[in-house]
Automatic annotation (TrEMBL):
Keyword NAD appears in the UniProt entry: no
Membrane-crossing segments per the record: 135-158, 244-265, 320-339, 351-368, 380-401, 421-443, 455-475, 522-542, 574-593, 605-625, 646-665, 671-692, 699-719
GO annotation (BP), single: intracellular calcium ion homeostasis
Superkingdom of origin: Eukaryota
Keywords from the UniProt entry: Antiport, Calcium, Calcium transport, Ion transport, Membrane, Phosphoprotein, Transmembrane, Transmembrane helix, Transport
UniProt membrane topology term: Multi-pass membrane protein
GO cellular component entries: endomembrane system; vacuolar membrane
Protein name from the UniProt record: VNX1 protein
InterPro entries, sorted: CaH_exchang (IPR004713), NaCa_Exmemb (IPR004837), NCX_ion-bd_dom_sf (IPR044880), YccF (IPR005185)
Signal peptide positions on this chain: none
């Protein structure tokens, strides 16, 4: 959502010393891009620039430009957005793409302006109205809406007193069959015929859907001076015609809104139900526009050219993306079905599990938006506390509820599912998230560069965290006793080969002395060292070595950016939404774990596969979308940091918290993973570090990461279920 003129122009050959100074001088002259430009770490002078770009470059030595190769200059519209952009580059902070403040209208692109415009603007020649989207409208809504208006016109003619409304419905029947290129206008009538029109003269409040005026309700006291036939016709219309048509348009509005690309149809139906159908019939004029026609006189109420606009995925309401708005009712449906229909009379357990899992996606979005809003409006300490407290709340809520249910039922399968989900999140964020971002970003950009030093810090922490997490597992493999469930002699010779099933390393030999005296203290030690290493990483990247990122928020704004910040969510509102979303997340996680049992027992798919795919990646979908958007803007550094930060938090925060939870609430969770989890995680981390060594990548390297991820998924798919499930 940035003007084309402000998009950064990348160089396929990488940054050169001469171009760095040119870009810095361009920033001084107010032609700097919106995000991702590389420039010298120099502030803009307060006065107007008095030097030319050429002389500017002569003033700075090549050593200065050489030292700022890794420095990134960001242009923010206000202080709040500057804090959000700066937080995106801080280790341990949630990366958020969407704006937390309202963007100035004049700074938006024409495509986005069209999304928020009312359907009452007459444009010039817009080409043919015979498009695939308009034909889709005809097939989905146009034919039966037109038929309904024809039937309503016949009924109004039968009542005699409603004959004016019958002609009104006949005109609208022709309009809604194909409304494109036509206009509904409020015609000016003589004062003697405006008795009923006076009831509609006032303008109401602004509509949240259309952003246009909404008329006041029909006031019967305005009919005192009207004639008898006019009052009778209006009464028949309001009792028989309007409710049916308003209900039909409400159905069209909801359906089109949920389909998102058909939101223009939703606007069309809403304005019809709230404005057109409440006008007196003599004030409504339906006309077909012609290319040579002069501008119409009077107010234009409806004028639509396209039924489908694919850019409505960018549409936001109060800063909330339209997808998150549409999925919010799903959360209410899930909670009602889950707690009211506890005996599965209305729906089955798999359906409730699916609904609960899908409800986690919008709740994750609201939690992320709330964290970003609070962090952008607060100081560093408050932002760090909020990110550390609520950054992993989505995953931890599900893991803890699953462990509690497994402990109550005495079922070890829930602990294995949690381990699979932890491994799946780690592998997915290391391979799939950066790989997918590299593929999609590589389609638009031939080669993408990123800050290899910041990626190296995350990689080092990832190596440390993976080694610490799997240290108890390796210890148990070395000192544990291999125990098998049953063995069969494949040869008749007693000394021959034996085929054994359900083999595992027993840590409870000699009354569990190995586990309680050796493995468990090692687990507690690792659980203390990993959060300490995480804090050291925060102190290193944010305090002593913050120059690794060296983010410079430039004060040279683009034209039109001199505006005060109008935040979408205030700090208190964001805090309330954060707490409510967390509460709903806990309820949905409880429902998901409550109804996952039939899937685990009756499904032929390995429980490993269910854990590493569905339970691990569905909560991370909002983060994946953010990473893709950053990659499309040639900002691959943030796309990589999204996956690395989640993986580091899984090992250094989430797993130690689960271990700490088992101390106060004993469960079947032990920090001993299967061999498959160990090999998949270590191989993924090694491959990621090999790919990210040179600080640049393309779509081929991203394809390698994605393919390796799918190969590991195939291994999990064909793997037998863990013992105890």
């Amino acid at each position: 959502d940035v003007p084309k003129a402000s998009e950064p122009q990348g160089d396929s050959d990488g940054p050169r010393r001469g171009s760095l100074c040119d870009q810095h001088c361009a920033a001084i002259n107010n032609v700097q891009g919106d995000l991702g430009d590389v420039g010298c770490h120099l502030h803009r002078p307060r006065g107007p620039p008095a030097v030319s770009p050429h002389s500017c470059c002569q003033q700075h030595s090549e050593e200065v430009c050489e030292s700022c190769v890794v420095k990134t200059t960001l242009t923010a519209e206000n202080a709040v957005e500057a804090n959000k952009l700066s937080n995106n580059y801080k280790f341990g902070f949630k990366k958020w793409k969407s704006h937390v403040t309202a963007r100035p209208w004049e700074d938006r692109s024409e495509i986005v302006k069209e999304l928020y415009s009312d359907l009452n603007v007459i444009r010039g020649s817009g080409g043919s109205t015979l498009t695939c989207g308009n034909v889709l409208y005809l097939l989905l809504f146009g034919w039966w809406l037109s038929l309904l208006y024809v039937l309503m016109a016949a009924m109004m003619f039968i009542t005699v007193v409603g004959a004016p409304y019958g002609r009104f419905c006949w005109d609208l029947a022709r309009y809604f069959l194909w409304p494109f290129g036509k206009v509904i206008q409020k015609a000016e009538v003589p004062k003697s015929r405006q008795t009923l029109g006076a009831c509609e003269a006032g303008t109401g409040e602004s509509s949240a859907l259309l952003g246009g005026p909404v008329p006041r309700r029909w006031r019967p006291q305005c009919w005192v001076d009207a004639g008898y036939w006019q009052r009778a016709g209006a009464m028949v219309w309001l009792c028989l015609g309007y409710p049916v048509l308003a209900l039909a348009h409400g159905l069209v509005c909801i359906t089109a809104w949920l389909l998102i690309i058909l939101i223009p149809v939703a606007k069309l139906s809403t304005r019809t139900a709230t404005r057109v159908l409440l006008l007196p019939p003599e004030q409504v004029l339906v006309r077909r526009l012609r290319m040579t026609e002069v501008p119409l006189e009077g107010e234009v109420i409806l004028c639509c050219y396209r039924a489908v606009n694919p850019y409505y995925y960018k549409y936001a309401i109060d800063g909330i993306n339209v997808f998150a708005v549409n999925l919010l009712p799903l959360v209410l449906v899930t909670l009602v079905l889950g707690y009211v229909d506890s005996h599965n009379h209305l729906t089955s357990s798999p359906v409730k599990f699916t609904l609960a899992l899908l409800s986690i996606m919008p709740l994750s979005y609201y939690i992320g938006m709330a964290i970003a809003s609070i962090s952008a409006q607060s100081n560093f300490a408050v932002g760090a506390v909020v990110n550390a407290t609520f950054g992993s709340i989505t995953e931890l809520t599900f893991y803890i509820t699953a462990l509690i249910k497994g402990s109550r039922e005495g079922n070890r399968c829930y602990a294995e599912i949690v381990k699979s989900a932890l491994t799946g999140t780690l592998v997915g964020c290391v391979l799939f998230v950066p790989g997918l971002c590299m593929v999609i970003g590589g389609i638009r950009h031939q080669e993408q560069r990123f800050n290899s030093r910041s990626a190296g810090v995350s990689s080092a922490l990832l190596f440390l965290s993976v080694g610490g997490v799997f240290a108890p597992t390796l210890f148990s493999k070395v000192y544990g006793k291999l125990v098998c469930g049953e063995c069969h002699n494949v040869t008749q010779n007693p000394l021959g080969h034996y085929l054994c099933h359900n083999c595992h390393f027993d840590l409870m030999e000699n009354n569990g002395s190995l586990y309680y005296n050796h493995v468990q203290p090692l687990v507690y030690t690792v659980s203390l060292l990993l959060p300490a290493a995480y804090l050291i990483g925060l102190f290193f990247t944010l305090k002593t070595h913050s120059h690794i990122y060296d983010i410079h928020i430039s004060d040279c704004h683009m034209p039109g950016h001199h505006h005060s910040a109008v935040v979408h969510w205030s700090r208190w509102r964001a805090l309330v939404i954060l707490l409510l979303s967390t509460l709903c997340m806990s309820a949905c996680a409880d429902l998901a774990t409550e109804h996952i049992s039939p899937i685990l027992t009756n499904s032929t798919i390995s429980q490993y596969f269910i854990g590493v795919t569905v339970l691990a990646m569905v909560p991370e979908l909002p983060e994946i979308v953010n990473g893709i958007q950053f990659a499309l803007q040639n900002n691959l550094s943030l796309s990589i940091e999204i996956g690395n930060c989640i993986a580091v938090q899984v090992c250094m925060l989430q797993i130690p918290i689960l271990v700490l939870f088992t101390i106060f609430y004993p469960t079947n969770f032990t920090l001993v993973f299967s061999d498959l989890h160990v090999y998949a995680s270590m191989f993924s981390v090694v491959l990621m570090n090999y790919i990210f060594m040179d600080g640049k990548c393309d779509y081929f390297q991203g394809t390698v990461l994605v393919m390796v991820y799918f190969i590991l998924l195939a291994v999990y798919f064909f793997a037998p279920s863990p013992s105890g499930c």
